[in-house]
């Protein structure tokens, strides 16, 4: 008889568990870039430079001028659930930093050759350390010359995960994803200078200046026509009062941003939603904003919204790969924002796009 042989249940080896988890957190090179960008921003960086080879499969470096890492922290740096950002579960509410799980570096160190060069503010020299499977290499950190700040170097991503490697797009495709992310990050954070280039090229493919305006960065990333079409949008609930505060059972938020005018249509819809500092996905909101434009000849808009809500009204889904956000009182918020957008489009404010000027 062909009865399959009885398999006994076994618990997977820790390295196998770690690799599976790592593959979930970092599904593509762009996910690694996102995590390292968030870390750099959390470290207070005002300049972030990214270098990419073969779409990030061969090499990714991310250099920041943030506060750096202290020598005594290097041992734990890539350990799973090691973080300087969260102590108790309660800290998750009203979280100020972008990362908090202490999983990104652990994951990357399990499927790439990861090293860091860091110089802590006030330290005379830099330190270089390499990691493998969450552990600092036994040789330990070595002293080196370095600018203040931190540079992560990721080489041969997925060297030990053939399946994952095969599932990736070409270098060109993966690089396009990275460039897209860096562009969106630059629009989200015009106070920070971003650059992104291919290894060996002199000219970056994307370069923004610290302290530029959001419109400047939209121009750099999406072009002049998009930048010129932008109208300011803002709204809040309750409509009176200062900082949004949770009144019992009522929606409270503020939203500030910009959206394209009705003369403009892009190649595709771009909708950037920031909630309490995180770029997130909020599909119901995106759909209803898009619907505002679709009622006008299916325009493809550009929209950026910076939304602030009290910490207890947002659930930034804490699963590492999901950037979907769930908001309390979502319906009322969406209604208020849609109304504000409609009001802007109804002609109270003039856009400066070429169609309006003629
Ligand atoms: P998390 O961001 O969730 O804390 P990570 O694995 O991304 O977890 O990073 C672990 C820790 O390493 C961070 O909490 C932070 O203390 C430190 N760290 C990571 N990247 C940087 C950086 N660019 N500059 C300074 N410290 C950093
Ligand atoms: Mg992080």
Automatic annotation (TrEMBL):
One of its GO terms (biological process) is mismatch repair. Coiled coil: none annotated. Keywords: DNA damage, DNA repair, Nucleus. The keyword Cell cycle does not apply. The chain holds residues 3 to 360 of 757 of the full protein. It comes from the Eukaryota. GO terms for molecular function: ATP binding; ATP hydrolysis activity; ATP-dependent DNA damage sensor activity; mismatched DNA binding. One of its GO terms (cellular component) is MutLalpha complex. Belongs to the DNA mismatch repair MutL/HexB family. It is found in: Nucleus. Transmembrane segments: none annotated. This is DNA mismatch repair protein S5 domain-containing protein. Residues 218-342 form the DNA mismatch repair protein S5 domain. The lineage of its organism: Eukaryota, Viridiplantae, Chlorophyta, core chlorophytes, Trebouxiophyceae. It comes from Coccomyxa viridis.
């Amino acid at each position: 008889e062909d009865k399959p042989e009885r398999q006994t249940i076994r618990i997977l080896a820790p390295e196998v568990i770690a690799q599976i988890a790592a593959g979930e957190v970092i599904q593509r090179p762009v996910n690694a870039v996102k995590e390292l960008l968030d870390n750099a921003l959390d470290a207070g960086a005002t300049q972030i430079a990214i270098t990419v080879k073969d779409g990030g499969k061969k090499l990714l470096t991310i250099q920041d001028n943030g506060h750096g890492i202290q020598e005594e922290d290097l041992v734990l740096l890539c350990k799973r659930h090691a973080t300087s950002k969260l102590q108790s579960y309660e800290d998750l509410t009203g979280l100020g930093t972008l990362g908090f799980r202490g999983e990104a570096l652990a994951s990357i160190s399990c499927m790439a050759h990861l090293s860091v060069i860091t110089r802590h503010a006030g330290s005379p020299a830099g330190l270089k350390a390499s990691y493998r499977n969450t552990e600092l290499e036994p040789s330990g950190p070595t002293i080196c010359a370095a600018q203040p700040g931190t540079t992560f170097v990721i080489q041969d991503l997925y060297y030990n995960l053939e399946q994952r490697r095969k599932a990736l797009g070409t270098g060109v495709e993966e690089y396009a994803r990275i460039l897209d992310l860096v562009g969106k990050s630059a629009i989200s954070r015009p106070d920070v200078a971003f650059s992104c280039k291919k290894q060996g090229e002199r000219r970056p493919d994307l370069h923004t200046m610290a302290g530029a305006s959001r419109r400047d960065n939209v121009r750099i990333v999406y072009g002049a026509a998009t930048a010129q079409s932008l109208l300011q949008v803002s709204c809040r609930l309750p409509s009176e009062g200062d900082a949004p505060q949770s009144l019992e059972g009522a929606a409270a938020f503020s939203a500030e941003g910009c959206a394209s005018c009705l003369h403009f249509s892009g190649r595709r819809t771009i909708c950037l939603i920031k909630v309490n500092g995180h770029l997130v996905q909020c599909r119901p909101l995106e759909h209803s904003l898009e619907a505002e434009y679709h009622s006008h000849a299916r325009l493809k808009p550009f929209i950026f919204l910076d939304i602030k809500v009290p910490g207890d009204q947002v659930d930034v889904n804490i699963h590492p790969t999901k950037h979907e956000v769930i908001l309390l009182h979502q319906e009322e918020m969406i209604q208020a924002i849609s109304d504000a957008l409609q009001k802007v489009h109804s002609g109270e404010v003039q856009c400066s796009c070429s169609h309006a000027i003629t």
